[in-house]
Amino acid sequence: GIQVEQSPPDLILQEGANSTLRCNFSDSVNNLQWFHQNPWGQLINLFYIPSGTKQNGRLSATTVATERYSLLYISSSQTTDSGVYFCAVNYGGSQGNLIFGKGTKLSVKP
Amino acid sequence: KAGVTQTPRYLIKTRGQQVTLSCSPISGHRSVSWYQQTPGQGLQFLFEYFSETQRNKGNFPGRFSGRQFSNSRSEMNVSTLELGDSALYLCASSITGTGGGYTFGSGTRLTVV
């Protein structure tokens, strides 16, 4: 089956710093989403981005489908950005089956 | 619009008991999928329902089952609970279940003692 790998597994930043999170996937996908899991466990949808670039405030994401990777950029990080960031993909006709990476745990220090 | 609602938020059960979790999707979303999250295995797909039919199933034992009602609300049931079933159970809804646009609920944290 398809493999999803995220890097780095852990990241510690000072408030105000920028960061780049990476997601590699082993096969063609028809859906790629980035999520932020808050301390209460809820997965918050950040981007639906099977290809191209999107921006939302301090966050932006780029997916290069032909090279099978996606990047999530966080600029001017804030303590509220702390949590775990997941990349998840869906492929072929696989209904409802999102394949998740293991996540990047981000800690932003004041 | 209302988000995905999962109830209850927390549960404590004893080994051998059974448990039922509920998920109400976003209005208009017909696909509901369930995931189990544990520290060791991460997020794993359980099953997906669309228009009251299970379309896809992950690699979990038959003790894990689910159903979907005509209003798209879904329930999952775990019978004969084991300690290893302790996890955060998340459901997600989407319009079709393929492509993108999955929205997750807040989850049900199940502890089996």
How would you name the oligomeric state of the polypeptide chains in this document?
heterodimer
Structural class of chain A: mainly beta
Largest sheet data of chain B: 7 strands, mixed
* Secondary structure tally, helices of chain A: 0
Describe the structure.
The complex is a heterodimer of chains A (110) and B (113). Chain A contains no helices and eleven strands. Helices cover 0% and strands 56% of the residues of chain A. Chain A has strands at 4-7, 10-14, 19-25, 31-37, 43-48, 52-56, 59-64, 69-74, 83-90, 99-100, 104-109. Chain A starts with a strand and ends with a strand. The radius of gyration of chain A is 13 Å and the shape is globular. With 110 residues, chain A is mostly beta strands. The model of chain A has no long low-confidence stretch (mean pLDDT 93). Chain B is an all-beta fold and 113 residues long. Helices cover 0% and strands 53% of the residues of chain B. In chain B, the strands form two sheets. In chain B, strands 2, 4, 5, 6, 9, 10 and 11 form a seven-stranded mixed sheet that branches. Chain B is globular, with a radius of gyration of 13 Å. The mean pLDDT of chain B is 94. Chain A binds chain B through residues 30-33, 35, 40-45, 48, 50, 86, 88, 90, 93-100, 102-103, and chain B through 31-33, 35, 37, 42-43, 45, 47-50, 55-56, 58, 88, 90, 92, 94, 97-107, 109.
Write the layout of secondary structure elements.
The complex is a heterodimer of chains A (110) and B (113).
Chain A: E1 4-7, E2 10-14, E3 19-25, E4 31-37, E5 43-48, E6 52-56, E7 59-64, E8 69-74, E9 83-90, E10 99-100, E11 104-109
Parallel strand pairs in A: 2-11
Antiparallel strand pairs in A: 1-3, 3-8, 4-5, 4-9, 6-7, 7-8, 9-10, 9-11
Chain B: E1 5-7, E2 10-13, E3 19-24, E4 31-38, E5 42-50, E6 53-57, E7 64-68, E8 74-78, E9 87-94, E10 103-104, E11 108-112
Parallel strand pairs in B: 2-11
Antiparallel strand pairs in B: 1-3, 3-8, 4-5, 4-9, 5-6, 7-8, 9-10, 9-11
